[in-house]
C-alpha cells in the first residue's frame, strides 16, 4: 500500500491532462475525442490492475508456492528441478 498514492496521483494527473482533449468540439475533435477516451480508459484500467489485481494474484500464488517449498525442504528434496548439463 506504500505505492498507492504515487501510482494513483500519476494516473490521475495524466488522465486529467487528457480531459480537455476529450471534451474538445473544434476542428479535429472527431479524431481527438476517441483517442483521449482510449488513453484515459487505459490509464484507469492499468492503474486498477497495478494496484488491485496484481497484488491479489501475487498473494494468491505466493501462498500456494510457499507450502510446496517448505514440504520439499522437509523431505530433503529440491524445490526446483535439476536441469541436465549439456555435453561438451
Overview of this protein structure:
This protein is an all-alpha fold. It has two helices and no strands. The chain starts with a helix and ends in a 13-residue tail after the last helix. The model has no long low-confidence stretch (mean pLDDT 82).
Alpha-beta classification: mainly alpha
> Stretches where pLDDT falls below 50 for ≥5 residues?
none
Q: Name the overall outline.
A: elongated
Largest sheet: none
Report the sheet-strand fraction.
under 5%
Tell me the number of structural domains: 1
Helix content: over 70%
Q: What is the terminal separation in angstroms? A: 50 Å
List SSEs in N-to-C order. Answer: HH
The whole-number mean of residue pLDDT values reads: 82
Q: How many helices? A: 2
Count every beta strand, where a strand is a DSSP E run of 2 or more residues. Answer: 0
Instruction: Return Rg in Å.
Output: 23 Å
Structure characteristics:
elongated, mainly alpha, 88 residues
Concise account of the structure shown:
The protein has 88 residues and is an all-alpha fold. It is built from two helices and no strands. Helix content is 75%, strand content 0%.
What's the SSE blueprint?
Blueprint: H1 4-22, H2 29-75
Helix pairs in contact: 1-2
